[in-house]
Amino acid sequence: QVQLKESGGGSVQPGGSQRLSCAAYGYINDRDCVGWFRQAPGQEREKVATIIVEGRGAQYSPSVVGRFTISRDNTGTVSNGWFLQMNNLKPEDTAVYYCATARTCDFQFVNAWGQGSQVTVSA
């Protein structure tokens, strides 16, 4: 079964940037979907961005379009990895961010979740 490990996150000032990484260990199908979700205190988990494992078909929540970019990690550091590049961060982006995989990008049936990475945006 696939396991996901996240890295990145931390504190940043409004307008700043952060990059999150997600690495998959174990079998994953190139046609599966990878997504980044976030959950702020007292709020429901929100799907932020998705991409097909092989690196195509990126889609974004309206709340982050134009500021966040999801992409496949083609650096060779890991066999299967993805980034969430977050630019022009706002305080309302503060949340715990999770990566996840699923057979389809509606994430009706999730295969695995990452451990979560805290991103805090404050002056």
Could you walk me through the main structural features you see in this protein, from its secondary elements to its overall organization?
This protein has 123 residues and is an all-beta fold. It is 0% helix and 50% strand. The chain is built from no helices and 11 strands. The protein has strands at 3-8, 10-12, 18-25, 33-39, 46-52, 59-60, 68-72, 81-86, 95-102, 110-113, 117-121. The relative contact order is 0.31. The mean pLDDT is 96.
Topology, element by element:
Layout: E1 3-8, E2 10-12, E3 18-25, E4 33-39, E5 46-52, E6 59-60, E7 68-72, E8 81-86, E9 95-102, E10 110-113, E11 117-121
Parallel strand pairs: 2-11
Antiparallel strand pairs: 1-3, 3-8, 4-5, 4-9, 5-6, 7-8, 9-10, 9-11
Order of helices and strands: EEEEEEEEEEE
Q: Measured on Cα atoms, how large is the radius of gyration?
A: 13 Å
* Number of extended strands: 11
Specify the helix fraction band.
Answer: under 10%
* Structural class category: mainly beta
Mean pLDDT: 96
User: Tell me about the biggest sheet?
Assistant: 7 strands, mixed
Instruction: Give the distance, in angstroms, between the N- and C-terminal Cα atoms.
Output: 41 Å
List segments where confidence is low: pLDDT < 50 over at least 5 consecutive residues: none
Basic shape: globular
- Bin the strand percentage: over 45%
Q: Please, how many helices?
A: 0
